[in-house]
Each structure stands twice: as C-alpha cells, then as structure tokens.
Amino acid sequence: MGFWFWFFIYLGIALAALIIYAYVGFQLLNKLKSFEAPAAKLAELAAKLEKTSKAEVTVESPVAAMDQTEQAVSRRQKQIAKARKAKKEAKERRLVSRLKHLDIDESRLRK
Hints:
By secondary structure, the protein is mainly α. It has three helices and no strands. It has two domains: about 60 residues; about 45 residues. The radius of gyration is 31 Å and the shape is rod-shaped. It starts with a helix and ends in an 11-residue tail after the last helix. Keywords: Coiled coil, Membrane, Transmembrane, Transmembrane helix.
C-alpha cells in the first residue's frame, strides 16, 4: 500500500471525527436552547427573591392583652383572622394559577 492510500485513510478518519464532533456539538446546542426559557424564568424569580431578601423587615413587639382595652384586643383578633383568611385565599389563587399553567410532559414516560 502506497503513501497516498494511507494518507486518504487517515484523512477520512479525521474528517469523519470532525463531522461527528460537529453533529454532537449541534445536538448539544439544540438542548441548550431548550433550557433558555426556564433559565430566564429562574433569573427573574432569583431577582425578585434577592429584592425581597434585601428589604428591611420591621417586627412589631407584641403588647400584652392585659395592657389593652377589650375593643383593641377583639379588633386585633379580627385583623389576625382576616389576615389568615387573606393569606389562605392568596395561597389558593397561586395554586389554581400554577395548575392552570401546568405543563405536563409525558415524554419522560416513553422509552
């Protein structure tokens, strides 16, 4: 076998390797593009979380009920009950919203 025969064999192997690397790179690029939208959503949520974590929290010191009038105590209890109800309703709204936008991907069940 001559020089040119082995030259073309090795050249073919090198070109085949480059084509395979290009194909694998293209497939990897397509998979990375599918992560772009969730990554943007996570970045938005991370920015919101960072903003709220930097906000200063003021905590009111509790006042003993014995030091308050009966009307003030009952008003405070009504406010607490109202806040709990509002919090529960907000949680239900978030759950319903999350369920409305639920993206069920059954491809993980296929083999």
